[in-house]
Amino acid sequence: MASCALAKPQMRGLLARRLRFHIVGAFFVAVGVACACKFGVAEQRKEAYADFYRNDDSMKDFEEMRRAGIFQSTK
Amino acid sequence: MFSRAARSWVLRTTGGGLGTRGTHSPGGSARSQGKMAPYYTNHYAQRSYPMPDEPYCTELTAEQQALKEKEKGSWAQLSQEEKVALYRLQFRESFAEMNRRSSEWKTVMGCVFFFIGLTGLLIWWQRVYVFPEKPVTLTDERKAQQLQRLLDMKSNPVQGLASRWDYERKEWKK
Lengths: 75, 174
Known about the structure:
The structure holds 2 protein chains of 2 kinds.
Chain A lengths: L13 H41 L3 H11 L7
Chain B lengths: L1 H17 L43 H10 L8 H11 L4 H4 L5 H26 L10 H13 L12 E2 L4 E2 L2
Antiparallel strand pairs in B: 1-2
């Protein structure tokens, strides 16, 4: 090859480089997705349940349901 | 081996037809049309199978045979044109040529959309001529009654349906 000398391309360690890149990337993606799930889903759900049960009167709910007529065992 | 041959057959009939070169196009002056081996014993190089069993051209002119003899010596004595000629004897296409883009994706997408549309028409016909009457529970009045019952029994009151209903004002929460 006489005219213009190209730089010699990387010949070795290609798989190792690719694996390192993807393993590191996959680790961070996984950690990121886990954090998103924890804050977006889990904490939100825990808060929703806490809010619901803070002022929950199950006997009042029962009376409302009974008045609406959905029970078979009582009116 | 048969899967490779089958794959190369598919490549030839689909990708080759839409490329700028046909599968049996004669090359430039530096290449000669070699014997076409039967597909099941040999096939041309692909990116996934770069070193086929037999060279591309097996019937060589006298000039090409002389070149092959010269190849047996030191390669430093070969000129650039000779090296390229030897490459073309050995391989049908270079990597750049074999990896060229094609317009096949347009055909594929067109056929996909066509058959999706055809399926839509068939399903429409089926809905008109085959399907029986809808059950009475799917009328709006019945569906409203079912929804009212769900709200009465406070289904999913934490995050689901009943949590979106305002029981004081009897309407959906904003």
